[in-house]
Amino acid sequence: MLEAGLCNYVLITYGHNARSGDSMKKLLFAMSGDDAIFGHFGATAGYAMAARRAMHEFKTGPQTWKQIAVGQRKWANLNPRAMMYKQTMSDRDYDTAPRVVEPFGLYDNCLISDGGRACIVTTLERARDLRHPPVTLMGLGMDNPSADLTRADYLAGPTGARRAGRQALKMAGITLEDIDACQIYDCFTYTVEITLQDYGFFQPGEGCDWLRGGTIEPGGSMPVNTSGGLLSEAYQMGMTPLTEGVMQLMGRCEERQLGPQTKTRNPEIILCSDNGGILQSHACYILRRV
Fold it and tell me: What is the CB neighbour count within 10 angstroms for residue 251?
């Protein structure tokens, strides 16, 4: 069990990002089960159901999610490793994209990628002898509201982010006001909104206003997914947000580095997340530069 103040070191190495073939199709059918009888299968449909319910409960929708997709693409355009590095996105691009599963369009969905990334975790004492500045793990929280979307108490939220975030902040001994940036698991645009909402950055129904004006973009007050994330860099599951958080705190992100270069704060503390089971499991971890 992690205790408050425990210090670990994380060193990141990047793998190659490449597009996969038919593996996703097989995965979708493997996940479908009996739902396929009703024409419902795959993660996209599951998250789309949650997002559609959120449109009713929280008065959210594509105008909110567009700010997430476009904002993260701007970070990817600063990241040579991103699959979308040279592909800009305008509001019109988002609005006119093909529908995938209502209410999601193409740019609400994460990328399909292949590759690998690795983290090395050791003691702070050992880390001080290595060539990169150490990054410590301040806090960790996990929550699993249910094992299956069909057994969930709430389709749209709250998700496991609520309790996991509180646990991580308590262990770290900080508040959200101490967070300099977030690296959020973003399999879909709505996942980013509901995760930030459940962490407490804004109240239900306030996401569109909170995001307005480039809050999460380069130059914004709360940068989110500064590599481009799963939406615009590469899908490496929970390793995408984790690796970016550590790289930023080490100062290894070059053109997209947080600080004066991107007209943002120099990062001291970054909050990262992971999510699974269509919003039914969640991990929150808080990293700090030594």
Answer: 15
